Amino acid sequence: MINKVVSGAEEAIKDISDGATLMLGGFGLCGIPENCINALVNKQVKNLTCISNNAGVDDFGIGLMLKQRQVKKMISSYVGENAEFERQLLSGELEVDLIPQGTLATRCLAAGYGMPAIFTPAGVGTEIAEGKEVRNFDGKDYLMEYAFDADYAIVKAWKGDTAGNLIFRSTSRNFNPIMAMAGKITIAEVEELVEAGELEPDYIHTPGIYVHRIFQGKDYEKRIEHRTVRKSEV
């Protein structure tokens, strides 16, 4: 069996170089690959194209890479929590593709399935459609969008085994599994790493065939953008 286990984030991302295109899993700040992002910040790799549901916040997640000007282009569907992102966008320092969330997910799926493109009604008749092919099916217009072409997919799972099989929890299951399928090289950091055969097969969300490197992460913060609790009735 191929040994997919690496010592940590630094070894996992060691060959990511300037100009790479990265998929980064997570939904908001839930299930983001914290260890790998920190390793990329420390490595100071530049001119990255990042495909992600979100752009992190100013001092966490992808926001740390934006702060160091490591990101050349951001392809995302939600960027509302990052003031530095907004500043770089408005000043022209950062290229940005804002994509409907369903289109973002389906372009990830297309890459994982080996499909070159998808057709979607989302974005037809808007600025998103400018310069793109529109085709009519049964009287309805659909916009053609290409599958993503990412050098690396970097994901975070709850549990994984040494063969690369992954289990995600709750909201972190939104983008992590589909991105894990889509990268040329997929790196997975997990909260708990076990031996092959210890995970219940019926509970595995991403088969190890998609994963090239895996390691057990550490010191997860698991931040919440806005913590909201019910007011006390006392």
TrEMBL record:
<comment type="similarity">
    <text>Belongs to the 3-oxoacid CoA-transferase subunit A family.</text>
</comment>
<keyword id="KW-0808">Transferase</keyword>
<dbReference type="GO" id="GO:0016740">
    <property type="term" value="F:transferase activity"/>
</dbReference>
<dbReference type="InterPro" id="IPR012792">
    <property type="entry name" value="3-oxoacid_CoA-transf_A"/>
</dbReference>
<dbReference type="InterPro" id="IPR004163">
    <property type="entry name" value="CoA_transf_BS"/>
</dbReference>
<protein>
    <submittedName>
        <fullName>CoA transferase subunit A</fullName>
    </submittedName>
</protein>
<dbReference type="Pfam" id="PF01144">
    <property type="entry name" value="CoA_trans"/>
</dbReference>
<dbReference type="InterPro" id="IPR037171">
    <property type="entry name" value="NagB/RpiA_transferase-like"/>
</dbReference>
<dbReference type="InterPro" id="IPR004165">
    <property type="entry name" value="CoA_trans_fam_I"/>
</dbReference>
